[in-house]
Amino acid sequence: MTTTVNPSPNPLKLRERIKLPRQHMPEQPADERSRNFTEVNLGYSAELARQEALRCLECEKPTCMDKCPVGVKVREFVRLIVAGDFLVAAAKIREDNVLPAITGRVCPQEDHCEGACKLCKKGESLGIGYLERFVADYEQRMGTIRLPAAPPTGKRVAVVGSGPSGLTVAGDLVQKGHMVRVFEALHELGGVLVYGIPEFRLPKEIVREQIDQLRAMGVEFETDVVVGKTVTIDELMEEEHYDAVFIGTGAGLPLFMNIPGEHLNGVYSANEFLTRINLMKAYQFPAYDQPMVDLRGKDVAVIGGGNTALDAIRSALRLGARKAYVMYRRSEAEMPARAEEVRHARQEGIEFRMLTSPIEFLSDGKGWLGGLRCLSMQLGEPDASGRRRPVPIPGSEFELPLSVAVIAIGTSANPVIQSTTTGLATDTRGYIQADTLTQRTSRKGVFAGGDIVTGTATVILAMAAGRRSAKSIHEYLTTDQW
Amino acid sequence: MFKIVHAEFIAPGIKRFEVEAPRIARKHKAGQFVILRLHDRGERIPITIENSNPERGTINIVVQSVGKTTHLLNALNAGDNILDVVGPLGKPSEIALFGNVVVIGGGVGVAMAYPTAAALKLAGNHVAAIIGARNKELVILEREMRQVSDELTITTDDGSYAEKGLVTDKLRRLIDNGTRIDLVLAVGPIPMMRAVAELTRKDHIRTIVSLNPIMIDGTGMCGGCRVLVDGKSQFACVDGPEFDGHLVDFAVLTQRNSTYRQEEERSMEEFRRHLEPRAADSPDDVGCAHGGRG
Ligand SMILES: Cc1cc2nc3c(=O)[nH]c(=O)nc-3n(C[C@H](O)[C@H](O)[C@H](O)COP(=O)(O)OP(=O)(O)OC[C@H]3O[C@@H](n4cnc5c(N)ncnc54)[C@H](O)[C@@H]3O)c2cc1C
Ligand SMILES: Cc1cc2nc3c(=O)[nH]c(=O)nc-3n(C[C@H](O)[C@H](O)[C@H](O)COP(=O)(O)OP(=O)(O)OC[C@H]3O[C@@H](n4cnc5c(N)ncnc54)[C@H](O)[C@@H]3O)c2cc1C
Ligand code: SF4
Ligand code: SF4
Ligand code: FES
Predict the structure, then answer these.
(1) Which chain A residue has the Cα nearest residue B271?
(2) What is the rounded (10 degree) CA torsion for B105, B111, B116, B119?
(3) β-sheet bridge partners, residue B6
(4) Residues B166, B155: contact at Cβ < 8 Å?
(5) At what angle do helices A86-94 and A128-142 cross, to 10 degrees?
(6) In chain A, where are the structural domains located?
């Protein structure tokens, strides 16, 4: 490992850098934050950011960058932090990532950039996510975002869905001079970023600011439009004269478990539970009109092991739950949630019931949930996903008293668009088929990306698909070649 | 923002609005609904589209005051705006030539049954309509229903107008008289729809009901509107709202609709307290026997 030819602003020798400990993210104390919705992570100060940035080895082959789905130039932006050029660092990130304040907070960095950081071998990886967040927040505070303007091309692009994939497409294409209009089914913009991920992990103010930036760049937004119902893609193209359409409608329908008692009051899908809390602000009822079941003093469990599950149960805790369980049928090692969230949840007092699978929701006799009948599992042979398959332990049934249960076992494809658009091919599970490189669908001029193509994935993967789509839409619009 | 161009009370506590929503007006089919939100702290509530006028770019809705949001909505007038209106949602009613069709509307359910009755009539069916209300004042859309039906029966619980009794009394008479019925559509309070379904079950008369569970997004995303039909979970906002009445588990629907009863009452109470001085000039609140999610 050698440093690159560019003069480095880093005064430390490699050996010295390796010895530096990773700078911890200041956070709200667990016992305080488990009772409020304010952000858990407080953010690096400029000094902490610089300290952390100094650890980077400035690798000649920056594996961190290779593993970032959008190829953020980590080494370069970190070097700019060392030099104190925070705004230039932000601009550097923006070359590849239009939502850095968001990805810095929610990317599963351990699977991407940080997981591939060469410092891992010597100890702890560089805090790339924390640094990315720092420069993005710094830039937002300074309010000095340059808006590159390209001459208008006269081409019109409709973007369906305002989640991370759609926002990325919109941001990229408006910068190329195309007219872009985003259609969103809900009354608020941002997709999962606003209705799924809670305030304490991703303040809605941040999402709003990122969207305001896009608006300032010229992106138009229309809420309350369910494409496929309010207007079809065929109509957008034929009657409203859009030259291209991007579909980024996300993974839609929540899956249920199809076990007895699922219709009892107090049994929620994670989508409903989180939508009430995040989108409708039901936790501020009655100041906000949408009601929420009163969780104070109640025992709550979430079923599942992903980010959604943890977001739901940590929200329940903040709403006053007495006991808050995560119930997952595999072991902790297999949990797909971000490592940081698992750590935070544990600190906050969430109880992890691993290798446990519910088999029946039990009634309290009055139409409400009263308990959960479960089975204990053990890990058997690896399954198709390569993870060891959980198998029930015979005779291990037990009952857990419970007032509220949240099901977070995944989603399936929402069929609204597919069923109303002519010539749009889907796979056997109903997801839209799109080329992995160009994101083109079977329908001329129509592109798709994000969760509606891959099934539930991550923010950064949705953005990467958005980025590829924007590139390929631009090519299509400028060459007219399909 | 969606502008109200016309608003009038058509019965105590029941108001009809004409709202500018050009995209929705163009696409609306009988049986579909909108979800609306009044202000930036408001909840999202589903309301059936009673009629649409694509040329004017407007839709009509008929709303009964039952809780805070519907009271708030019914306090709005022409010139006011509704913050969000999204739709048309749900599957359109199945319209075909069935033959002899009985359309039953109870309370504000009449407004929800009306567009489907009209479409069924247009499709060549013989439409016998039965509309029911608690009393004379609460009978709505009599003229409109008469226009789209071959025969119209009105029932009032207290006998203050037309026939005394329940809509099901009339239906039972039709069945007992051996009238051929190919399809029954029933829209109204849950107990009414359940009673209709029970009545038609033994004669295997196909019966469609329009379910009104609690909804949020209306696009199939949240799963909150799930209803139990034929032992399976269905999402009323995308798989419905109309279902085969003989397969619906009405007990589950009633129970799930009571989830937020306490909160709804609290919300209404605080709202009422807030509104007290103005309450005098708004028409009487008529309770919820015939509307809402009962
Ligand atoms: C609770 C939760 C927590 C998560 N946490 C993380 C995390 O920490 N890190 C991470 O990387 N990923 C996380 N994810 C996953 C990540 O949020 C998604 O992979 C990502 O948001 C997908 O982006 P998208 O653009 O494909 O769609 P979405 O974000 O799902 O947005 C789709 C948008 O399209 C709209 N829409 C749908 N249908 C229509 C239509 N017919 N017409 C108009 N609009 C429509 C929807 O209302 C929505 O706003 C989480 C997901 C959830 C649910
Ligand atoms: C697909 C669909 C279509 C619909 N179409 C229409 C329509 O066209 N017109 C229409 O008027 N409604 C319609 N509804 C019902 C309408 O959505 C509800 O009435 C509305 O959501 C009520 O909101 P709210 O805040 O005013 O009342 P909430 O506070 O939410 O109260 C709702 C229900 O709670 C119960 N409740 C509240 N307070 C009390 C109390 N003190 N005692 C006993 N019970 C109480 C009642 O059953 C009441 O209906 C429809 C519903 C669905 C699902
Ligand atoms: S976008 Fe995500 S994966 Fe890429 S560098 Fe930033 S935090 Fe890492
Ligand atoms: S791999 Fe790690 S140490 Fe190397 S350049 Fe990337 S962030 Fe720096
Ligand atoms: S209202 Fe959310 S899925 Fe039907």
Answers:
(1) A286
(2) 120
(3) B18
(4) yes
(5) 110
(6) 14-142, 156-252+413-479, 254-411
The CATH H-level superfamily of A254-411 is: FAD/NAD(P)-binding domain (3.50.50.60)
Q: What is the pLDDT of residues A30-74, one digit of tens each?
A: 999 999 999 999 999 999 999 999 999 999 999 999 999 999 999
Is residue A142 predicted with pLDDT exceeding 60? yes
Confidence of residue B276 (pLDDT cuts 50, 70, 90): low
Does the beta carbon of B62 lie inside 6 Å of ligand 2? yes
pLDDT one-digit tens code per residue, A395-414: 999 999 999 999 999 999 98
pLDDT of A255 above 80? yes
Query: Taking CB atoms and an 8 Å cutoff, what residues of chain B touch A414?
Result: 219-221
A302 burial (CB, 10 Å; 0-12 / 13-18 / 19+) is buried
Distance from the alpha carbon of residue B63 to the mean position of ligand 2, in angstroms: 9
Contact indicator for B21, B34 with CB cutoff of 8 Å: yes
Question: Mutating which of A181, A221, A223, A224 best tests the B interface, going by the most B Cβ atoms within 10 A?
Answer: A224
Region A429-436: mean pLDDT is 94
DSSP B51: E
Where in the sequence of chain B do the CATH 2.40.30.10 domains occur? 2-90
For Cα atoms A73, A74, A79, give the angle at the middle one, nearest 5 degrees.
105
First to last CA, chain B: 29
Mutate to test the pocket of ligand 5, among B37, B89, B216 (most ligand atoms within 8 A of CB): B216
- Note whether A171 and A217 are within 8 A (CB): yes
Strands A351-354 and A323-328, sheet pairing: parallel
> At B260, is the pLDDT very low, low, confident or very high (cuts 50, 70, 90)?
confident
CATH number of A14-142: 1.10.1060.10
| A177 touches A152 (CB < 8 A) | yes
Rounded to a whole number of angstroms, the distance between the first and last alpha carbons of chain A is 44
Identify the CATH homologous superfamily for domain A156-252+413-479: FAD/NAD(P)-binding domain (3.50.50.60)
Residue linked to tokens 């985003």 = A182
B277: confidence class by pLDDT, cuts 50, 70, 90: low
| Alpha carbon nearest to ligand 2 atom 16, residue | B292
For CA atoms B257, B262, B263, B265, the dihedral sign is: positive
Q: Which CATH number fits domain B100-257: 3.40.50.300, 2.30.170.40, 3.30.465.10, 3.40.50.80?
A: 3.40.50.80
**ipTM above threshold 0.95:** no
Tokens at A474, concatenated: 């631009």
Is A398 touching B (CB cutoff 8 A)?
A: no
Q: What is the 3-state secondary structure (H, E, C) of B218-265?
A: CCCCCCCCEEEECCEEEEHHHHCCEEECCCECHHHHHHHHCCCHHHHH
Nearest partner of A310 among A40, A114, A25, judged by Cα: A40
pLDDT in tens, A344-394: 999 999 999 999 999 999 999 999 999 999 999 998 888 887 888 899 999
Q: Which of A267, A297, A27, A461 is nearest to B252 (CA)?
A: A267
Q: What is the CATH number of domain B2-90?
A: 2.40.30.10
pLDDT of residue A477: 96
Bridge-based pairing state of the strands B84-89 and B33-37: antiparallel
Same fold across A156-252+413-479 and A254-411: yes
pTM for this entry: 0.92
Cα–chain center distance at B5? 22
* Burial environment of residue A110 by CB neighbours within 10 A (0 to 12, 13 to 18, 19 or more): middle
Q: Shortest CB distance from A276 goes to which of B88, B216, B235?
A: B216
The ligand 3 atom at the shortest distance from the C-alpha of residue A112 is 3
Question: Hey, what are A113's tokens?
Answer: 């950039």
